[in-house]
Design goal:
The chain is 21% helix and 27% strand. It is an alpha/beta fold. The chain has a single domain, classed as Nitrilase/N-carbamoyl-D-aminoacid amidohydrolase (4-Layer Sandwich), CATH 3.60.110. Strands 5-4-3-2-1-14 form a six-stranded mixed beta sheet. The chain starts with a strand and ends in a 19-residue tail after the last strand. It comes from Sphaerimonospora thailandensis. InterPro entries: Aliph_Amidase/BUP, C-N_Hydrolase, C-N_Hydrolase_sf, UPF0012_CS. Keywords: Hydrolase. Belongs to the carbon-nitrogen hydrolase superfamily. NIT1/NIT2 family.
Length: 279
């Protein structure tokens, strides 16, 4: 059985949660109309990203039972979907979190708080301390990470070890210079993570320009062999990517008759990975 996955590359507007929620709901509906069952939206899609300061972020943040999560959970229920999306969360202790939610017909299934904060995010958000959640859905086992988390191989390996068949990654990748003709390094890293863990990966980047920041607009749906099944068209525009993914294939970690990417691990040799770097 295959699952049609949709990645929605959108251009939310910082500080306009009502407009952003309308944008997200329209994208979910459009993806469902095209046969998608699993829909992934960008990081902080409900709030925008380039905040002037913590106060501005706080003004757009919502609780887990706020209007954005509630409305997107209702859309998932009504259309029979699994939906993953980023939002600025105001947690029960009044702390700001860069979070992602997974909702389906049963409502809110998981909230993940970004563990690895990028650049000025450290001035606004509190990092999460929990590993990537992996949720058993009717479509398969779905994991969640956010953006910069993808640059830490240990984090995707944790999701794979917990049984994820596909990992959804809402992102906001700021564009950086690269040599002519080269692919965005962010996409290359994502492909490598999918390949070495034998998992599918659905990356929802964003489009447009926000307060002078341009984005990679590198959304992609990547197969468990590391090769893209669908990639964003050039030009940085809003678009919906689709790919049919046989998620059950991610349960097979063999890459040769004698090799398995998880069974061949030798964890007793890796203790140094968790130690501070020796500079």
């Amino acid at each position: 059985m295959t699952v049609r996955v949709a990645v929605c590359q959108l251009a939310p507007v910082v500080g306009d949660p009502e407009r952003n929620l309308d944008l997200a709901l329209a994208a979910v509906s459009a993806a469902a109309d095209r046969g998608a069952r699993l829909v992934v939206l960008p990081e902080l899609v409900t709030s925008g990203y380039v905040f002037a300061d913590e106060a501005e972020a706080r003004a757009t943040a919502q609780a887990q039972d706020g209007p954005a999560v509630t409305a997107l959970a209702r859309a998932a229920r009504d259309r029979g979907l699994v939906v993953c999306f980023g939002f600025a969360e105001l947690d029960a202790d009044g702390l700001l979190r860069n979070s992602a939610a997974l909702v389906d017909a049963d409502g809110l299934r998981a909230v993940y708080r970004k563990a690895h904060l990028w650049d000025r995010e450290k001035e606004i958000f509190i990092p999460g301390d929990d590993p990537p959640p992996v949720v058993e859905t009717e479509l398969g086992r779905v994991g969640l990470v956010i953006c910069y988390d993808l640059e830490f191989p240990e984090w995707l390996r944790l999701a794979a070890l917990r049984g994820a068949q596909i990992v959804c990654a809402p992102t906001n990748w700021p564009a950086e210079p690269r040599p002519p003709g080269e692919r965005p390094i962010e996409v290359v890293r994502a492909q490598a993570s999918a390949s070495v863990n034998r998992i599918f990966l659905a990356v929802a980047d964003r489009a447009g320009t926000e307060r002078g920041v341009e984005w990679v607009s590198g959304s992609a749906i990547i197969g468990h062999d590391g090769f893209p099944l669908s990639e964003a068209e050039p030009g940085g525009r809003e678009q919906i990517l689709l790919a049919d993914c046989a998620l059950a294939e991610a349960a097979d970690k063999r890459i040769s008759p004698r090799n398995d990417v998880l069974a061949d691990r030798r964890p007793h040799l890796y203790g140094g990975v968790t130690q501070p770097p020796q500079l």
